[in-house]
Amino acid sequence: MAINRPPVMTVEDYLEWELKQERKHEYIDGVVIEMPGVSNKHSLITTNLIYLFVAALDRSRYTMHTSELRLQVSSTRYVYPDLTLVRGTSDFADPSEYNLMNPVFVVEVTSPSSEDRDRLEKLGHYYDVPTIEAYLIVDQRRVCVELYTRGDSGWRRQIYTELNDVISLAMLDCELSLDQVYLGIAFEVT
Question: Is 27 exposed, middle or buried (0-12, 13-18, 19+ CB in 10 A)?
Fold first, then answer.
C-alpha cells in the first residue's frame, strides 16, 4: 500500500491541518505521512495488549493511551504509536492535550506498510525521547516480538519468537506472555 505524502508543511500548519482530517497523519521534519487502516490481526493484538496491561498495571501509577493520541518525539516530529504508557501524570506540549511528551513505554504493532518505519525510523525517534525506557515491536504476520530497553550503557534488544515466551517488563513491574499477546491469531503454516 502506498503512503500518501502531501507537500511539505510547517509544524504549525500540520498541527492545525491535522485537527480537521478524518484520518491520522504523522509528521516527520516537514513530511506528512497518512496512517493506514489496520488489519484484523493488528486490531486483535492491540486489544490483547490493552487487556494484558489493564490487568497487570497499577492504574494509580500508570496511564495508557491508544493510537488516537499523538506523541511529540521532537519539535519537528509527531507520531501515533499503537499504545503508549505513562508513569504518573501525562505531560503535554500544549494546553490542547493532543501532543504527549512523557511516555515511558511505547508499542507498535507492525503493518505491511509501516514495518520498516517501525523497526528503523521510529526506533531512532524513540531512542531520542529521554523518558522512554522501552519500545516494543509486535509483528502481526508471525510470532516475533522485539523489546528495546534503555540501560546505563545504552539500548538493549531482545527478540521473542515462541508462544510460550514470557517478556519481563521490569520498568512496568509486569510480564507479557506471548500466547496472550497473540491470543486469537491464526498464522499460515509455510
Answer: buried
pTM of full prediction above 0.85 = yes
Is the separation of the CB atoms in 102 and 155 below 8 Å?
Answer: no
Handedness of CA 101, 105, 108, 114 (dihedral sign): positive
CB 161 within 8 A of CB 144: yes
Residue 136's domain spans which residues?
A: 38-181
User: Which residues does residue 158 pair with via DSSP β-bridges, in sequence order?
Assistant: 147
- The stretch 114-121 carries a mean pLDDT of 83
Identity at 17, one-letter amino acid code: W
Region of 154 on the Ramachandran plot (φ > 0 left; ψ -120 to 50 alpha; else beta): left
Largest CA distance in the chain: 51
The identity of residue 21, as a single letter, is Q
Residue 23 is assigned to a structural domain of this protein: no
Looking up cell 498541527, which residue turns up?
Answer: 15
3-state secondary structure of 162: coil
Residues 58-105: pLDDT tens digits?
A: 999 999 999 999 999 999 999 999 999 999 999 999 888 999 999 999
Residue among 99, 94, 87, 78 at smallest CA distance from 32: 78
Indicate the number of domains in the chain.
1
Query: Could you report the per-residue pLDDT of 129-148, keeping only the tens digit for each?
Result: 999 999 999 999 999 999 99
- Inside any domain, residue 189: no
